[in-house]
Amino acid sequence: HMVLQRELPIPLRGLATADSVVKVTLAGRIATTRSDKEGLWQVSLAALPAGGPHELIVECGDEQFRITNVLIGDVWICSGQSNMEWPLGMCAGGANESGELPVLRFLRVELLPALHPADEWSCAPQWHSCSPKSIQRISGVAYYFAKRLLQADPTVPIGLVIAAVGGTRIEQWMSDEALAEAGVEKSPDPVEPEFEEQLAALIAGLDRKDVEDIPEHVCSFALPETNCADWPVMELPCYWQEAGHKFNGAFWFRREVEIPQEWVGRSLELHLGTCDKHERTYFNGEEIGRTDIVKDPDVWAAPRRYTIPANKVRAGKSVITVRVFSHVFGGGMTGPAKAMKIGPEGYGAIPLHGPWHYQIESNFGNAVAPHNNQPSRLWNGMVAPLLSSPVRGVLWYQGESNADDPVLYRRLFTALIRDWRSKWGNDSLPFFFVQLPGYGPGATWPELRAAQAAALALPATAMAVAIDQGDLNDIHPPDKQEVGKRLASLALKHAYGHAALVCEGPVVSTVLITAP
């Protein structure tokens, strides 16, 4: 389902039998080369116009490798922190999007930092075509950007490469060379063995898919007759790591509720808040719902809401049991507290936050992101592997985590833009970014916005004004549609030649101070 950049040579590389002839065919373009003694090979196919779908065929001896449904179009890198990462399914109106955009494809890069610039991703991400289900985990900002471009020209496929991580500072997305240009010195890194060990555990965790394998000896944990009086207690919501369990695994949480007589004969709505990551929920021993992060990578952030049929509701003691399976990063029933409740709609509810009994089914060991908050780590592991692939431009939404030092950010941001362009060998690579929106507690945010705007002195840059799109009480304003459309308007004007399009307001050029 991938998209390759149109109208530029297409570099491809791979592995084959050592010292063998490799033939690559795509849309009538053919290239032949010979693999080296390690089996590595690389070719460059002649540029192609927008279109597809095509089939990419790689042949070596009697072996043949086919990649289907390949489109040629425009590839945009979408990077930054949580507001760029924020999935469409959690945006206002996002659940109503149909997904009927057959020439829109997206790829989400895993959070995999690296000590040194990588040629390949440590854990290869997958391209996805659009469907009502898959688009719920696409970046909301990027989706609305692409949707607007396709409305303007549906003949050019759009590929979105989403490399964004919540809470990250700009330094994490900068190469060593860019940091040096901005006058930032990196401290020596003495933790390489520890880093490599954590990275291996992280990759192993990402590959763990045995969520379905529930050991026989714990199957009774959900049964109402099981005595859990001697189980330990955890105050929920929380990550179990915060409760002292510094590992990933599978936990069972159990809580008794007293169902009043007036609820009998009515269906109940069970709200658990979010559960990180996979989860199965039982009511009096019967499964009433489950989620699976393999099928939906953003389910860790999705509120759980299940309906308990009226015929299963009886007065008196009932038991709610939740099995939470987390293979990487944090795990647990993470709330918020006000979202955890049970009751019939319109008849009040019993709150479910507070003490829950729990048992540990499995301990997988610790699999956390290894020191990803250090400068250059995410550039090295998430962006550097893209350098061999031509792209159309960059969308950037970041700055909240750097609001503590707007003066430094001014240097860092311009250095990042120059460096990314240098790395891709394109001094005019379009770079469009989002102004930080309005937000109440952000006392230094106006200065950070000014630092962002300083980058407009660079060519082929533009800023999507978003101060009016914020939420005074929410650092993640839910309406991402207008921001995405504004970015698209900038792209249409500055990258696609729609010169007459009015998409930017007046900017102060001079200030004259006169004596009274």
**Which word captures the global form?**
globular
Radius of gyration (Å): 26 Å
Number of helices: 8
Average pLDDT, all residues: 91
Low-confidence stretches: none
Major pleated sheet: 11 strands, mixed
Give me some keywords for this one.
17% helix; 24 strands; 516 residues; alpha+beta
Task: Write structural notes for this entry.
- There is one protein chain.
- With 516 residues, the chain is α+β, with helices and mostly antiparallel strands.
- It has helices at residues 82-85, 140-152, 176-181, 192-206, 377-383, 406-424, 445-453, 481-494; strands at residues 3-5, 10-15, 21-26, 29-34, 40-45, 51-60, 63-80, 104-108, 127-129, 158-164, 233-236, 238-239, 248-259, 268-276, 278-283, 286-291, 303-308, 316-326, 332-343, 350-351, 354-365, 393-397, 431-434, 461-464.
- Helix 2 (140-152) crosses helix 8.
- Helix content is 17%, strand content 32%.
- The strands form four sheets. Strands 1, 3, 4, 6, 7, 8, 9, 10, 22, 23 and 24 form an eleven-stranded mixed sheet that branches. Strands 11-21-13-18-15-16 form a six-stranded antiparallel sheet, with no helix packed on it. Strands 12, 14, 17, 19 and 20 form a five-stranded antiparallel sheet that branches.
- The mean pLDDT is 91.
